[in-house]
Amino acid sequence: MASEALSIIPGAVLRNLSDKLYEKRKNAALEIEGIVKQLATAGDHDKISAVITMLIGDFTLSAQANHRKGGLIGLAAVTVGLTTEAAQHLEQIVPPVIYSFNDQDSRVRYYACEALYNIAKVVRGDFIIYFNKIFDALCKLSADSDANVQSAAHLLDRLVKDIVTESDQFSIEEFIPLLRERMNVLNPYVRQFLVGWITVLDSVPDIDMLGFLPDFLDGLFNMLSDSSHEIRQQADAALSEFLQEIKNSPNVDYGRMAEILVRRAGSSDEFTRLTSITWINEFVKLGGDQLVPYYADILGAILPCISDQEEKIRVVARETNEELRAIKADPTEGFDIGAIVSIAKRELNGEHEATRIEALHWFSTLLARYRAEFLAYLNDIFDPLLNALSDPSDAVVLLVLEVHACIAGEPHHFHHLVSYLIRTFHNNHVLLEKRGALIVRRLCVLLGAEKVYRKFSTILESEGDLDFASTMVQALNLILLTSTELAELRSLLKKSLVDSCGKDLFESLYSSWSHSPMATISLCLLAQAYNHAVCVIQSLVEEDIHVKFLVQLDKLIRLLETPVFACLRLQLLEPGKHTWLLKTLYGLLMLLPQQSAAFKILRTRLKTVPFGENLKRTSSANPYSQILQVTEDGNRNQDTLNYIAINFQSRLHQFESMQQQHRDHLRNQLQSRKSASALALSQEIRRYEEAHSSISEISRPPSRTSRNIS
């Protein structure tokens, strides 16, 4: 075959084809072109094939760079000489040219680009069968280290794009796997090359690039974080065009793309996150039933973005979240409530307040629409919801309480909630002090004040930690006396002596209020059980009058001047009718230090009482000891008749028994402290004696025997 080719191509031409001078190689190629034209005209394709084989074997595969250059020019010349008949020899011509794209010599790679350019101009659409191999080669050449090679590759690339766009033989199905593989390349030149091809192919009406978008969408999003501004712009432009096509297309595979968008929404790059969340926003509006199985994943992407540092991302994320929550999906159609619950639970522990708030809104939405299904997952989320009550954000706590209120429709859940609150307050006194009132008041609004207070009282009655029980009762009592949300509860307590519902509430609270003398007295004042209040005051002993007691008493005296006790103060206008009220107030006055502000406040109030004929002062000159003398008529007041409804003797016994427990507990505490102090003191003395003994041994003079030996 080679000898046959040598007989066809003169030796001088072959020598010039491998010459180091470009002009000689060019002239040799022109002569080969002419010879091939003659052979083609004669229809002697066997000789043409022999020439091609010789050019490949002796030139393009030669170890000499000039031979390889000549061989490439020669193959291009053969193709030009064949013109319309070149297609039948492409199987021989194209592969060695493509192979030369990997040559170590940059000039050879350059001539390979030039050769394939000339071949492509001749055969046009006939070389489409080699497109994937050519595309792969161009992809590498676009990042070539030699600028001339890059330039030649760009020229070839433009020609190939023109050929592909006008060809009806191009197979997008065969091309997409190669494109998907190359989309992961990080080289900026390659990325520009890829985006260029995607844009060109998408512009061809007969090529459905949108149908294959899921295959290379992730790669495009990956380019949005490229360090090159130009590449980011090109990728963004391509994505914007595809998004517009999606809006106008009736058939879109939202599912596969949703997975990609969810992943990219968590990108560390701000622009990538914004673009991803924008796409998700459109998908939620357009996707319909296709997106139902992906709602949980989408929610998992949206919620963190609600707290993004970039305002644009936050705005789009909030809008998307509202759109998603407004969709009423059917669990029987693939809507996974468990997955949504899991996502909301995860984000409830997030570091950003806005995200935690939206997670709670999702809990509320699920409870409202799918209560039975939601409660099936309650064991997984109840504890996290309880822990959220310690959240540093008031807004979060209020929403958590709303969710708990919805769950607490079942009695055992309600009991669990209140028990947990008491346990949490027990372990975290700061939370009780700073957030206790907020939590209790909100629960009263959501679940009913009477129901909440009855449950607190029932649990606290058997509380083992007496100190905490007293503190908790005092906190609840203060909320009861000051919160506008509990106005109805106070009104009911005021009817304790004349209404069975008020009586039941009074007795229910009294059981735990007995942990605190001042809370008990406050309860009696609210219930207008003044006679019993006097008995409670008189039952107090020296051990009960301590600093904490006086602080609570000071608060009560100041509260007596608030609108809550306006009715009580008005009753002082009829001292003859409310003698036990006066005796209660004077009893409190006697417990206060005379120099305290509370003493002065109460004394001033009592000075305004208009004493009548049936009340006499034993010592009118001494305002500090206004002991009331009650006449027979004045003692038969209306309040006394109503005391029959409540067994106050039993209540007093209950109070005294509870207070005795507190006294015993206090004595035990003091005894323990004394024992601990005594033990510490004895240990200190022992250490001192041991140290003193050691010093004595060291400083003792030597004996007479030892001096004699010396």
Automatic annotation (TrEMBL):
Subcellular location, record wording: Endomembrane system
UniProt keyword list: Membrane, Repeat
HEAT repeats: 93-128
GO-annotated cellular components: endosome membrane; PAS complex
UniProt GO BP: phosphatidylinositol biosynthetic process
One Pfam family recorded for the sequence: Vac14_Fab1_bd
Predominant cellular place of this UniProt entry's protein: membrane
Biased composition regions of type Low complexity, renumbered to the chain: 693-710
PROSITE patterns: HEAT_REPEAT (PS50077)
InterPro entries xrefs: HEAT_type_2, Vac14, VAC14_Fig4p-bd
Location of region: Disordered: 691-710
Domain annotation Vacuolar protein 14 C-terminal Fig4-binding: ranges: 431-609
Domain of life: Eukaryota
Protein name, per record: Vacuolar protein 14 C-terminal Fig4-binding domain-containing protein
Source organism (scientific name): Zizania palustris (Northern wild rice)
Source taxonomy: Eukaryota, Viridiplantae, Streptophyta, Embryophyta, Tracheophyta
